[in-house]
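step 4 of 6: structure.
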Amino acid sequence: MTMTATQCLLQMYDEHYDLEDYQSGVPRWCTGCGDNAILAAVQRLCRDENLRPEKTAFISGIGCSSRFPHYMKTYGFHGIHGRALPIAEGVKMARPDLHVFVNTGDGDCCSIGAAHWIHAIRYNMNMTVLLHDNQIYGLTKMQASPTTPLGTKSNTTPRGSYLAPLNPLSITLGVQNVSFVAQAVDWIPEMLYDIIKAAYHHKGFSFIRIVQRCPEWLPEMFEPWLHDPNRILVLNHENGLQVSASLSKVYKNLQAHDPSDLNRAREIASNLDPVPVGILYRNPDVPRYEEVRHAGQMRSTDLIEKGLNAEFDKFTVWPQETEAQTQPVM
Amino acid sequence: MNDTSIKQFVNEIPRQARSPAAKKAVTLKEHIVEIISDSGEGAQRCGQSLGSIAARMGNGIWTVEIIPAEIRPPARSVAGASGNRIRLGSERITNGGDNTDLIVAFNEQALLGRVRAGELKPDCTILLESMWRDNKDPKITAAYIETCNQLVAAGYKVHEVPMERECLSVVADAHRGKNMFALGMLCSIYSLDMQLAREQIALTFGKKGQSIIEPNIKLLEAGFTWAEVNLDFKYRIPAVRSSEPQIVANGNTALALGVLASGMDICAMYPITPATSASHYLSDVFEKVGGIVHQAEDEIAACAFAIGASYAGKCAVTITSGPGYSLKQEGLGLAVMAEIPLVVVNVQRGGPSTGLPTKAEQGDLMAAIFGSHGDAPKVVMAASTIEDCFYSVITARKIAETFNMVVVLLTDANLATSQQPFPRPQFNKSWLAPPVDQSAIPAGAKPYDWDATTGLARRFIPGQPNGMHTVTGLTHDRLSHVAYDAEINEESIRARSLKLAALQKTLKTPPLFGDEKGDLLIIGWGSTKGAIEEAVESMRAEGCKVSSMHLRFLQPLPPGIKEVMQRFKKVMTIEGNWSDRPQDELIDETNRRYSAVATLLRARYLIDVDCWSEVMGQPIKPGTICRVIRDQLKKQAEAEQS
Ligand SMILES: Cc1ncc(C[n+]2csc(CCOP(=O)(O)OP(=O)(O)O)c2C)c(N)n1
Ligand code: SF4
Ligand SMILES: [Mg+2]
């Protein structure tokens, strides 16, 4: 069956996906695990944006949260601990046409993968990165992570953790080329969705730290915030997120923040309580590595043949003196 | 500048008067020449130019870089020799050879370094810069005179050459141009075509313009004239000009050209000696054909990046050396498990740990085959010549994509920095990877539908409709669903292992060098090929019944090797990695650690393969191999008699 180009285009635009077109398998997370909410928000986003499943890839490391790609009916790459970002970078460089999402845990991103995290910010490749920050190692059964609050008891810190946690927002905002930083909490689905959507639409490395509940290991940890809406600082701005009327009835602690203000973003990031939720920083003008490097070029056989022969010429010793075309051997 | 303009320009430079009396040149079959200086004095460029000129005349050449361990060692230091060794011959040269016949040294300390390393022939001709004889610093003068006297007493033919003084009569700053003066002397000594030499200079300095080319040509001619007038010897190494165009390049350049020719489009790397120069060159040229070199934040990231790129499209390559190879191990296991094609190049250097960064060793074979935890079958190949560095990348990419496997390509510091001409390859479309498959996957097809016989499964690539699935490093079933079922674990490990057998069935028995049977079979792999075959050839000329076989595939080992080994009374490997010395007090058959390939051959074929190895940080010399063969045959003869 052949189609005209217009028909093809029409069909593409006609293509319509439902939620179940993105759903795969039954998530094996604990009941009440914040990852479920993140999954729901992401599947909704895919449907609403009508992302073609075969053109979408979810890439993760190892951890409870890194199981995420298995529950998406898209392409997925459940990688190795800490290395989701460089894998995703390779994917994006080879295939800038794909929608790339990354799921990573606080151990995965901020501990074993910390070097990659810093550099990924700097590369600023177009991808949406979800940091599932439950402030603990979930999969390996409750060890302290770099974001675990000081004094938290865990299996490796039975008398309380020794070190102050690092702040993923401040760190991200401190790296050269940062282009999108947001924070969400898993228990306000509407804002979670809006933030992920804004991140998806940003062209560059969109980093969302999602405060994610782990009822299995830290059942009490987020309770105070859950029960007191005033301990959520909602960032509101016409250039950022605009909180709905219904939501602002519950979450009254609003603050106007223009996401183009990096210094203010850094100040907000350093406030741990109340927890800021919204877009801290956005700069669409930061160059994207894949574009700087001209990823996804068409490479014809002819181009390669010509290029290769031009290189051979540089190193060739010709048999006939008169045709000598050698270049220095260096 | 184009070629005609170079010629024209060269012809316009006023010529110096030719030497009065032409000496009679002694004809040689081959000679080994070295040019050494402190680093930064240009001996490398002189050596490379000499090699190029000789190659253009049709001589066989093999050039080896002499690199000090430090970037800027102190001036005039024994450990600071930097330069080049060039083996020139009438016929094809396959390795760096034994000891040096003639050396040009810019100071006596760097020279001492070479003498102490045992690199010079006992009667080696030395052309030594004489300016140190009357230095302001009496200590330097004393050191120079003492060394000179010692060298003469030791039997070396020392010629003191006032290089600095002669150069100053041509240019204001002799420091920069002495190398071209030396090149001129060597052109005289080896009766090389001066017109070619002038052209070579014009090409070398072409980018810098005529104001640089002109004084360098004058220096070249000054050196030539000086040698014509002042030296009482002259050689000629007859050359047979090849009828085919030849590429003169080092192994790393050949490797990078191979990456271009393989159609791969992404190379991820992190700088590490001695692999870096491949990436330097690739960084310069890859973009011209739409490729990308990504310098990652470390080797773990480089490996992961390449895996991501391979997963999403065409096979990618990552280039590294020992320490970086260690860092990639977990990533390689992932690629094996997820069956993502990947080419990994390990330009081996001395190890373990940081080891000898600039020196050659073959110490990573076992890591290449067995590296990464669990059962992680990978294909392992080794390039054995400069030309092989080029073609092996193309082969590696093809195998990786045909079998969805990791292919490790081993080269080493010797191949990386040595130059040898090889026939210019004719571009072939079939070298390139096909375009990324974006066709729809038929309904019901599974991402890991392992073939019961070959273990092969069709790879699904993102973008292919109906192919959506999540690859994982966890044990998975045919749908790529995580499986904790022990049976699926066994089934999938079996499939990944079978792919090696499927590849093995397509391989040919490596050819024998020498007779089909005999007293001794030498087996080697990698960069030792030239030296081993040269040694075997000369031992055969002495009447010894020795042959050799060189392995290109180390995993899987090709078929037919056992049958070949059985036709020889004894089999022995020669390798550049460690093997315990049988003469050491504690070493016996119950604890001796054999060299890598010897261990593999013993385990696979149950044949009592012996080994000889050394880890001297430099290529194994053909003369050394001759001695090893001689000793071994003597031992065998004695055993037969008793
Ligand atoms: C190289 C390596 N080291 C350690 C582990 C074990 N491991 C698996 S997940 C994990 C931590 C997971 O914590 P996090 O990233 O916060 O994810 P979560 O489970 O909390 O979602 C660890 C240490 C591993 N799989 N690989
Ligand atoms: S252990 Fe915690 S993070 Fe893991 S699934 Fe359970 S609740 Fe979620
Ligand atoms: Mg966690």
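step 5 of 6: annotate
 - The pocket of iron/sulfur cluster (ligand 2) is lined by residues A 29-30, 33, 35, 64, 134, 138, 214-217 (CB under 6 Å).
 - The beta strands of chain A are 56-60, 75-78, 99-105, 127-133, 180-185, 205-211, 232-236, 254-256, 275-282, 316-317.
step 6 of 6: archive
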